[in-house]
Amino acid sequence: MADTQFDSALDLLRRLSPRDTKRNLQAITTLVPDLTEDLLASVDQPLEVRRCATSNRDYLLCDYNRDGDSYRSPWSNEFDPPIEDGTVPSERVRKLEVAVNEAFDVYRELYYEGGVGSVYLWDLDDGFAVAAVTPGSRSSQGAWDSIHVFESTDRARMSHYKLTSTVILHLATENDALGTMDLSGNMTRQVEADLPVESDASHVANVGRLVEDMELKMRNLLRM
């Protein structure tokens, strides 16, 4: 019964506007509370911003830095609201998380000219995982959110990366010729690559290159 309800909820959300995903999720989980955790882990939502009280820097809220009802700041590694025994990365992965966030701050300024971006890392049995979330372009006529999720598996002097990228796009306009037009949707693409790794610093360059290439490809597809 639970699997049927979960599949039906996903099917319903796919047919509704992505712009209203948060409101629709709240409605579904109010009706069927047992689906809350599975739906929050499976459905990409438009990104929200929160300020880290310790570092006074903004970060993005998503399922990848959520533990219960709290969210972890990539700048301070602290949860808001505070919780005991929250899941945090190991010391090595945390150092890498800080380095990747600094690199993506430069990427965000170059490509998006402002806004907020966040990168979250967590440990895997034979490597680590990365979630890079960027708000993209925003205006009164539309918004672009992108979420890039990596799995990195260590293989001697190489690392195998599996990247899943999702873009959430919303466009709206109103004029005499068209009337009111409101288009929303999302696109997901995957790619895998084996790249050389000499140290943890190599992961920063590899992840950045893969994200840059994927965003360029997805932009070109959306413009066609």
TrEMBL record:
Compartments where located: Cytoplasm, Cytoskeleton
InterPro entries noted in UniProt: CapZ_alpha/beta (IPR037282), CapZ_alpha/beta_2 (IPR042276), CAPZB (IPR001698), CAPZB_N (IPR043175), F-actin_capping_bsu_CS (IPR019771)
Ranges that cross the membrane: none
One cellular component term from this protein's GO annotations in UniProt: incipient cellular bud site
SUPFAM superfamilies registered for this protein in UniProt: Subunits of heterodimeric actin filament capping protein Capz
Pfam families: F_actin_cap_B
Key words, A-Z: Actin capping, Actin-binding, Cytoplasm, Cytoskeleton
PROSITE patterns, alphabetized: F_ACTIN_CAPPING_BETA (PS00231)
GO biological process: actin cortical patch organization; barbed-end actin filament capping; filamentous growth; mating projection actin fusion focus assembly; mitotic actomyosin contractile ring assembly; mitotic actomyosin contractile ring contraction
GO MF term (any one): actin filament binding
Lineage: superkingdom: Eukaryota
Functional description taken from the UniProt entry: F-actin-capping proteins bind in a Ca(2+)-independent manner to the fast growing ends of actin filaments (barbed end) thereby blocking the exchange of subunits at these ends. Unlike other capping proteins (such as gelsolin and severin), these proteins do not sever actin filaments.
Family indicated by similarity: Belongs to the F-actin-capping protein beta subunit family.
PANTHER family: F-ACTIN-CAPPING PROTEIN SUBUNIT BETA, F-ACTIN-CAPPING PROTEIN SUBUNIT BETA ISOFORMS 1 AND 2
Subunit details: Heterodimer of an alpha and a beta subunit. Component of the F-actin capping complex, composed of a heterodimer of an alpha and a beta subunit.
Protein name as annotated: F-actin-capping protein subunit beta
